Amino acid sequence: MKDMPSISHLMKALILFLLSFDISWGQLEVLGGWEGRITVANPFGFNVLLDASDERDVFVELQGNKSITRIGLSAGSDGILRGSFENQLRVSVDLEGAEPIVFFQINHHLCAIALQSDRQNVWQGKWQLLLGQAPPYTLLLSLDSNSDSSLYASIFFKEPTFHYMLAEQFRIEENRISFVDLRSQIHFEGTLGDQVIHMRLRFLNEELFLDMRPSDRRQWALGKGSGASYSEVADSRFERLVRDIESDTLERTHAVVISEEDSIVFEHYFDDFAKDVLHDTRSAAKSFASAIVGIAIDERLLPHEFLDIKSFYEDKYSEIDWTGQKDKVNLFHLMTMSSGMDAIDFGLNRTSFANEGNYQRQNDWTKHILQAPMVKAPGSEGNYGSGSPHLIGPIIDNLLESKLEFYMHRRLFRPLGITNYRIQLTNESRPYFGGGWYLRPVDLVRFGQLYLNNGIHKEEQIIPGQWVEKSMERHVVLENTFDKNPYGYLFWHKDYWFGDKSFASVEARGAGGQYIFIVPKLKLVVAILSGNYTNNKAFQPERIFREYILPHVLN
Hints:
The chain is an alpha+beta fold. The chain has 14 helices and 31 strands. The radius of gyration is 26 Å and the shape is globular.
């Protein structure tokens, strides 16, 4: 038997091992999970003041729990007032018209700010950086090692109503760590103590302090709140639905809102969600993009939906090869997912050249999509992919004198009374027509009712009636979907059966179970929002509609 290595040899080997991974003893102490509780109500919530009473000194003021941040605004060549604070927040304001339009931009999110007149040329409102509920809030931090020995951080709020976060610019020096959340731009700075990280969070001039202690990551159960729920409008017909959601038989359902004959008859929120908490709609936002196209055609920004896209893009992207019938691709093909380009998100036995995951990793999303090879003749086959609607946004934006977000607010959101929402932006800081917008569930129902009422809201024709009819027609079949769903202008179609009767539903859909059901035959609109992103329950809202809502509406 060979001699066992001595203790000194083992210690030398351990030291060499640690040196090879470039991890100090202090770094080893921080690896793993950490948990902290925020008990302050409305963290990073602000009272907002817009003061344009002196045209030489226009500013926005954000008052937090402990601080005030003042951002001066100046007009650009387009008349839009702009200002910023470090790299955290950009402000853009349009004072044209009776009410100002205000957007706050945090990285790739654009937040609409609702303000009320306080006095002449002065307006006030509220804004919350984090999409939240009542405290406490549980902040979770995971510190891990890459294969190259470098460390990285992952940050989460346990509660499902907050943004998921993405740490970047991670640094560790002796007993200090720091990083920035990519999505909220909150700066995190921590000091390592004895089994504790004293953490400081900063956004603008507002600071928040908490202690984070070691936590078993296996017990985190992310995205599941306390289970608290409440009704804004109750209806006894749907009591079983509430029981089954609360018991997790219908898991991770966050909100159900039902409207019959233009009246909300049921509105219930679950898992700590509330009426005014914005929900990620994912690809359901594509249907809003369809509405914007119809409005632009009605106002003659666009002549019609059969205009080829080459005429818009060939000057900027001279390197694009328009052969193989790519020059025949038009707006109709983009809205019906029938462009024939290899920009398909799922359902293939291969990876599509320009699926959403691929093009969003590029410096220029639009260029990458336009470079996708043709795999079908335009209009011959439908295949779902977010790249097609993305190409629509830059076209409309370039035709406008103002920015696209202001146009959408004036023509669609404000007439509908939707003032609290967030829009995901592209890498060019344009509204992303592929999805990821945050809205209130009741506002999704309002949008659905607009289509049910032929484009009219409160006697105002917001979308042309003819466009509504075209949008809700069955133009193609999506070959890469399990049900081979018919598809309209960025709207899904599905038939639901009750006995021997079928009911056609026109739907906006988003990943994880985000649905708007529009059923003209029943004058019914239903919004269901969920958090089923990774558990194969993304289609659960269809079961809820078929088994829990449709029978009780009919009876």
